[in-house]
Specification:
Elements: H1 3-7, E1 20-22, E2 30-31, H2 33-38, E3 41-42, E4 50-55, E5 63-70, E6 75-76, H3 82-96, H4 117-120
Parallel strand pairs: 1-4
Antiparallel strand pairs: 2-5, 3-6, 4-5
Length: about 140
């Protein structure tokens, strides 16, 4: 095993407090939150069972960590109720409605502007006059 993997390999959990494995080398039976969600599961309040780690130059600590949860203790995802669907629909409607002109668009408005493009830039842009105007003789 290379030194990069040996720094991230701690199956007993003595160095980091939880069992640690190199990236892509986690044993079967563990999954990240995203992997659990793809299978229709959620952690369900269980503590972090293990972690996978890899070197990452862009981070301050120099490593990137993903927490793993046990699949056998995971619970099914709660189904959306009609109230939750309604709240989600209202939230999406608010993201598509301009607060200035109150027009509802078919897309989410940019948060950098805070309103629709027409309200953010009300003046139409004029093409530059670069000598294309006809001179009267």
């Amino acid at each position: 095993m290379s030194t990069a993997y040996s720094k991230c390999y701690d199956p007993a959990g003595t160095r980091f407090g939880v069992p640690t494995y190199p990236w892509h080398f986690a044993p079967d039976g563990y999954a990240t939150r995203r992997q659990l969600r793809e299978r229709g599961l959620r952690p369900g309040g269980q503590p972090v069972a293990a972690q996978v780690m890899r070197r990452h130059r862009g981070r301050k600590a120099g490593v990137q960590v993903a927490y793993l949860y046990r699949e056998d203790l995971a619970k099914p995802v709660r189904p959306m109720t009609s109230r939750k669907w309604g709240a989600l629909a209202l939230a999406m409607l608010a993201r598509r409605t301009c607060p200035v002109c109150r027009i509802t668009y078919s897309y989410c408005l940019p948060t950098s502007l805070g309103c629709c493009v027409l309200c953010a830039y009300p003046e139409p842009t004029q093409p530059a006059a670069c000598g294309s105007q006809s001179k009267e003789a």
